[in-house]
Each structure stands twice: as structure tokens, then as C-alpha cells.
Amino acid sequence: MKLTKTLVPGLLILLISALMTSVQAQGEQEELNTDRPDQSQGPSVVSRGYVQLEAGYNYQKLNATTRTHAYPTALLRFGLLENVELRLQGAVKDSVIENGTERHIKGWGPLGIGTKVRLWEESGWRPEAGISAMLTLPLASEVFKPDNVEPQFGLAFSKELSQKMDATGNLGYGWTGGHAVRSYGANITRQFIDKLTLYLEVFGSKEKSEPAEHQADFGLLYLLLPNLQVDVAAGRRLNKAAPHHFITTGLAFRLPQ
Fold first, then answer.
1. Are 104 and 133 in contact (CB under 8 A)?
2. pLDDT tens digit string along 209-238?
3. Could you give the angle at the alpha carbon of 50 between the alpha carbons of 90 and 137, nearest 5°?
4. Which end of the chain lies in a sparser environment, N or C, as judged by fewer CB atoms within 10 Å?
């Protein structure tokens, strides 16, 4: 644990230094589009030949007795073709259950692998659209490992409302713990200055035979470099069935070709 605490900050400093050096050596780059920290993941994909890592810390209070920590949550995106990317996702989890005394449950969360495909670009009234497919694999610490492979599918849309405002929405369907789950998300993003963006969002899910969960959140994204973005977001439940609240912060960076 002590070794990890020493290495992580050092590696992060080295990584940021390398990114700054690479940016100085490059010309103009296309806009950095990320799938964090919001839940309404849009249809954009990483361009062919690029690698993008999105990682962060997530704290969530589920109810009066249960809190969860995930650090780091990580999504690795590889641009395979012009409109196709490969995705790898995972997290280290630590659940704290308070019943008089605290009990920690630590371990690796399940590994997810999948793809996202951009169907078409925005044109006139037609929004940009994309589809995604992920498989959550039973590769995890015993306490977090699913019994079987769990597929997740998504359909996403994005539309420019003005030069500095966009709307994004998605619909999802998949399985968790052997039960079918439907999900949705919708947000509006607004760029205030060249490097600062704010978003407002609502999202939720509905598991079969369980009440629907609805949440809302807002977040800030700041572009430190053309290929390095930091973010922070906070959300709260809209009904009693949903988790009470959450906070997340992290970064996203794209490696140069």
C-alpha cells in the first residue's frame, strides 16, 4: 500500500510532463471528447490510431448504512477504425458498511470489454448517433465477481443546439446479477470559456421487479491541454429508490500518435 501511494503521484507527474512535451511537438488536434464524468455517454468515438484513458475516483452513499468508493475507475479507449473504438473498463472498489462498526470490503471490480460504433455524423436536423456493446466478465475479486457474463447495449444521440451548447441522450438495456435492466440518460452541456464546460444531467435505471431509480447531477470539465482534461461532478437522487448522492472527480487524456 505504501509503495502504491508513492508510485501513483510520481507516475502521474511523469505522465503529465510527457503529455505537455508531446503537445508542444504537435500541431492542431481535434477536439477531445470524453465519456466521463457524465452518465449520458454520447456517440463520439476515439479517432483511428489514438488511445484515450479516462480515470477517476467515485464516492457514493447508497443509503444510511452503505457507502462505496471506486478508485480508480478506468476506461481505456482504442481507435480501431474511423468510426469504431475498442473499450476496456474496470475499477478498484472499497465498500464501507457502517453498522455500529465499520467493515471494509475491498477488491477489483469486474472487467468490461466492448466497442462503440458511430453510425453517422450530425447533419441538419439529424443528430449524431452511435451504438455501444459491452460485456462485463466474471474476472474480479470474489466479492464483486458476477456469476455470468453480463451484456450491456446502448444507443446514443447528440445534437448541437448552438455554437456553445449541445444536448446528448442515450438509452440502454442489459443484465446485472442475472436481471434485465433498462437505463436512460440526458444532459445539456454549455461552454462558458474556451476551456471550461458545464453540464446538467438526469439519468436513471429500472431493474425488473424493482422500483425505478432516478438521479440528477451537474459537473465541470476543464481542458488543461488539447489532450488533457480534468473534471468534477456531484449528483443526488430524485426518488427514494435511488442512491442518496455521489461525488466523482478524475481526468481524461489522449496519447498522441
1. no
2. 899 999 999 999 999 999 999 999 999 999
3. 25
4. N
* CA dist., res. 204 & res. 208, Å (int): 14
Phi and psi at residue 42, to the nearest 5°: -80, -175
Task: Give the torsion sign (CA, 30, 202, 125, 163).
Answer: negative
128 phi-psi bin (left φ>0, alpha ψ -120 to 50, beta other) = beta
Statement: residue 24 has pLDDT above 70:
no
Contacts of 219 (CB under 8 A, 6+ apart): 37, 38, 198, 199, 201, 231, 232, 233, 234
Predicted TM-score of the model (pTM): 0.86
**101 pLDDT tier (thresholds 50, 70, 90):** low
State the distance between the two ends of the chain, measured CA to CA, in whole angstroms.
34
Supply the pLDDT for residue 37. 96
- pLDDT on residue 26: 46
Domains and CATH numbers, the chain: 2-255 (2.40.160.40)
